[in-house]
Design goal:
The chain is α+β, with helices and mostly antiparallel strands and 945 residues long. Helices cover 20% and strands 29% of the residues.
Length: 945
């Protein structure tokens, strides 16, 4: 007789709700199996037929790290499209390629770590390329669209599971794992949380990744905001995945905890569910979790909660219902539709910043395309490997014909002469394989090694002419005639072996250091100097070679020759995404690198009809006065060159818009670590200077008229409408933008704030009637006196136009709300971090678990202002909760000090608070000013009477 088939366990029953199936599966897992699930690489449980699972497939603008895939424009370029519908289609295509690639390579994961929702607060941030905008509303609109595309449309099963990066207030690479972002409550709620909140509430987010940094003195990986805010925004089980190595940072670099067991337990309790640490080796994290359980720092219920969240994602991805998973057979990869979408996205991302009429180019124009990026299609750290490639030069060849296009790259052509009189020589290798870094895919591309199959450099009497580029700050690349870059592999030898600069630690950059009558050549990846020995050229700690730089031709000479032969010159300038501004490295200036400034000046001097096309991951401060036209695009992916050529030729009218302010000078910028966008007047929301180009700016080859702005308040919303008409003779897109300004605000509010926008296509003479429904909550601000959102009554301007500064129509609505009332400080006291204004103050953690305190940023002195504090009929005393050492001085309305409260001796630690009291007589409503002196933490102020 045949043995009866045992019944399937409930977790395999697709008729049951996911929650019940997860309950059943959790009950079947052993404690050890559950602990193992908490590492990024969760092992299989063969006895239950459960496959292995990993979190973390990079997919920021295409499938990354796993080999060839469709490469779309960088995220900041997608933000510049101002087109959520387009970005949703991009997300849809990316998720389909994830599924198709996974069918052939199970290393490809379905839990995608994208998009990046960090706001582009500061343009010197090295990872500017990864975000969408400086504005939370635009960021959430684009991020929501991308997550919906990644998720797919099926009501039950998700195509991929998107995780938002990087929670929270993360805009610096400099000391990123140890710096703390001081974020006052208004900035927290109105700015940093806002972009995450609206994206999560839209319902297509599977989780978030905490950032490396600290916020208000507490690491993001133990942030109470994960439970207080993030998980309050949705009923879905969100999976919180740590950033790589961040769990260990809590002890090793941040020194926030004494032991890894304490740190791991605190992270899990705070809400981290999956630990990304030590690569594929889960043993150390499993050991820490075991240790935390044994010490009573964790309970099995804590572990179950985290495992439940992971299983929730896995069930939604259809892992346990393969026969019902509608995405299981997805095979769309590098399709004609995806290629067309990549070109469309690249076209829509191009922003025309200035045009005096030189664009679009006439069909018979003779064009010189020059510059370091003129024949490049650059990738970034989060790109896939190119299947197709289009450079500006190739695009212009295709559009205008090779006979009408001149080209000069503008590199300096040099030879390096040794002290012995010989020259560096690149051996010629016949039929050498053309290897592309990362083409085979890698779970961690940081571990990819350089090539050692090619011979190292030698010296001879004539040497090899190298193409030298200075990317700024003296950071150089050197390229051999065969197109390969000089690089250093693990054996320390210098070879012409890299297809492009790249890698986690770039091995293709050098610096010439003056030394005597020559230069030392320092390899920046290893920090060692190049030396010449009998067995070849290498880097070493001793005996550096002194080189003479022999210049055969300066780049500007070639540029000037090409420019003089053309009707119009297109200078393609910008950055290499792996050099001077990238993950781990912030920029130091907005200025264009000197080498490229030289090329631009040479082109302009040879031909006044010079167009500057900036291809970059971030804004630059340039002088456009003498340039008839300027364009900007992010690195546009596989179709970048074709897209740029089509815009230059007028096949497509540009309609990209700047997603962040372009400042005119470094002096306009706040400090990189100054996260107080209100106090330091950052971004278009608060900046009071004159930008080089404002937020939302972008020109067209046609003109548009705005008319008929109306607004009415009804049903909890402001209903706004107006028309846009194409008054030119070219079909084009317009991005109509709607802003507001509180006209009668009681405190600092944005100069203007984006409420909504619409990208529309209009034929010549066509009119679009646009309508917007704006919830009244969009006009609220975070009232620190009441610690909640509040709609202030009064007049609000509504501004419609083509950018934040190009306002075409205005009207005003009067909104009912809650009147401003004084702070009820007798009953509630003052939370120290709930200030209205501050000087020299940073917010720190009150305890390691929750709460805020304030302290002088430099440890010496700082000042706080709390407006309109109501002492009612009178108070007779004040108390302060403080830790550390120093004093608190209290005054009212700018008057003399009424009380000075000082610690007699330092408290035993930064979290050991004491209460100090003093007599103060006051009545009525007053502004309270506190002056802190010394390394003192202030948590709260109380008043009694």
């Amino acid at each position: 007789m045949t043995a009866p088939t045992p019944p399937s366990p409930p977790f395999r029953d697709p008729r049951l709700p996911f929650a019940k199936r997860i309950d059943d599966l959790l009950s079947r897992l052993t404690p050890e199996e559950k602990i193992a699930f908490l590492h990024q690489f969760a092992p299989a449980v063969e006895r239950l037929g459960i496959a292995a699972f990993r979190t973390g497939q990079e997919a920021l603008h295409g499938v990354a790290w796993m080999g060839p895939a469709t490469v779309f424009p960088q995220a900041v370029g997608l933000g510049a499209t101002w087109n959520p519908e387009l970005v949703r289609r991009v997300g849809d295509a990316v998720s389909k390629e994830v599924r198709a690639m996974r069918a052939k390579d199970d290393r490809v994961g379905l839990n995608v770590w994208a998009p990046t929702v960090n706001l582009l607060r500061h343009p010197l941030w090295g990872r500017n390329e990864e975000g969408y905008s400086e504005d939370p509303k635009l960021t959430s609109a684009i991020a929501t669209a991308y997550t919906h595309g990644l998720r797919g449309d099926h009501p039950t099963y998700w195509r991929t599971a998107p995780v938002l990066k990087h929670w929270l207030a993360h805009n610096n690479e400099t000391d990123r794992s140890t710096t703390s972002s001081s974020v006052r409550p208004r900035v927290l709620h109105e700015y940093d949380l806002k972009a995450f909140r609206e994206t999560v509430e839209a319902g297509a987010v599977a989780g978030v990744m905490p950032a490396y940094n600290l916020v208000n003195g507490r690491p993001n990986h133990v942030s109470p905001y994960l439970s207080e805010h993030l998980r309050a925004w949705t009923d879905e089980d969100l999976l919180v995945c740590s950033d790589a190595g961040a769990p260990s940072n809590l002890v090793d670099s941040e020194h926030y905890f004494d032991t890894h067991e304490e740190a791991t337990a605190a992270s899990l309790v705070a809400g981290v569910d999956s630990f990304t640490d030590h690569g594929t080796d889960s043993s150390q994290m499993i050991g820490r979790l075991r240790g935390a359980l044994e010490r009573g720092l964790l309970t099995e219920a804590d572990v179950d909660t985290a495992v439940r969240r992971q299983l929730s994602v896995r069930f939604r991805l259809g892992e346990f219902d393969p026969e019902y998973d509608p995405h299981g057979a997805t095979s769309e990869f590098d399709t004609p539709a995806h290629r067309a979408l990549a070109r469309e996205a690249a076209e829509q991302a191009i922003v025309l910043l200035k045009n005096d009429g030189v664009l679009p180019l006439a069909p018979d124009t003779r064009v010189a395309v020059v510059g370091l990026l003129a024949d490049e299609c650059k990738l970034d750290w989060y790109s896939g490997t190119l299947l197709h490639r289009s450079t500006p030069l190739e695009g212009l060849y295709e559009r205008f014909g090779a006979d009408r296009v001149e080209f000069a790259e503008g590199v300096d052509r040099v030879r390096l002469k040794t002290s012995a009189g010989a020259f560096l020589h690149v051996p010629v290798v016949e039929d050498a394989a053309d290897e592309v870094r990362g083409a085979e895919g890698a779970l961690d591309p940081a571990l990819l090694a350089g090539r050692t199959d090619l011979p190292p450099l030698t010296t001879d009497a004539t040497g090899t002419e190298l193409a030298l580029v200075d990317w700024g700050e003296g950071v150089l690349t050197l390229r051999a005639p065969d197109g390969r870059y000089l690089s250093v592999a693990d054996d320390g030898r210098v070879r012409a072996s890299a297809d492009q600069p790249g890698g986690w630690v770039v091995q293709e950059t050098f610096r010439l250091e003056p030394h005597g009558n020559g230069h030392l050549l320092k390899h920046l990846g290893t920090g060692r100097h190049v030396c010449v020995s009998a067995d070849g050229v290498k880097v070493a700690d001793e005996d550096p070679e002194v080189f003479e730089l022999v210049v055969a031709e300066r780049g500007e000479e070639a540029v000037a020759r090409a420019a003089a032969q053309a009707d119009v010159v297109v200078v393609v300038a910008g950055n290499d995404p792996h050099i001077n501004g990238r993950e781990t490295e912030d920029r130091t200036t907005l200025r264009l690198p000197g080498h490229q400034e030289r090329l631009l000046r040479a082109a302009r001097a040879a031909n006044p009809a010079t167009v500057l096309a900036l291809v970059s991951a971030y804004p630059y401060a340039i002088d456009p006065a003498d340039l008839p036209a300027v364009l900007w695009t992010a690195h546009g992916g596989q179709a970048a060159g074709t897209a740029l050529a089509r815009v230059l030729a007028g096949d497509v009218s540009p309609a990209g818009r700047l997603p962040q302010t372009w400042y005119a000078d470094d002096a306009d910028l706040p400090g990189l670590l100054d996260y107080d966008v209100i106090g330091s007047r950052q971004t278009y929301l608060y900046f009071e200077g004159t930008p080089l180009f404002p937020f939302g700016h972008g020109l067209s080859y046609t003109s548009f008229a705005y008319d008929g702005l109306t607004a009415r308040v009804a049903d909890g919303s402001v209903h706004v409408s107006f028309t846009v008409t194409n008054t030119g003779d070219v079909t084009a897109d317009e991005v109509a933008q709607l802003y507001t300004r509180a006209a009668e605000a009681s405190g600092p509010r944005p100069r203007r704030e984006l409420l909504d926008h619409r990208r529309v296509t209009l034929a010549p003479g066509a009119t679009a009637a646009l309508s917007f429904e704006v919830r009244l909550s969009a006009f609220e601000f975070w009232d620190v006196a009441q610690d909640r959102w509040r709609l202030e009554p009064g007049a609000y301007e509504l501004l419609a136009g083509a950018s934040s500064e190009d306002v075409r129509l205005r009207t005003t609505v009067t909104l009912d709300g809650e009147p401003t009332t004084p702070r009820a400080v007798v009953a509630g006291g003052l939370a120290a971090a709930g200030f209205d204004e501050q000087s020299g103050i940073e917010i720190v953690d009150r305890t390691k678990v929750s709460g805020d305190a304030v302290t002088p940023a430099d440890g010496t002195a700082g000042e706080l202002l709390y407006r309109a504090c109501d002492f009612r009929s009178g108070i007779s005393g004040v108390t302060v909760e403080v830790a550390g050492e120093g004093s608190v001085e209290l005054s009212l309305d700018g008057g003399p000090a009424l009380a000075v409260l000082s610690t007699a001796t330092p408290t035993s630690g930064p979290y050991d608070y004491v209460s100090l009291g003093a007599s103060v007589d006051a009545a009525g409503v007053h502004d309270v000013r506190l002056r802190l002196r010394g390394p003192l933490r202030l948590a709260r102020v109380g008043f009694s009477g």
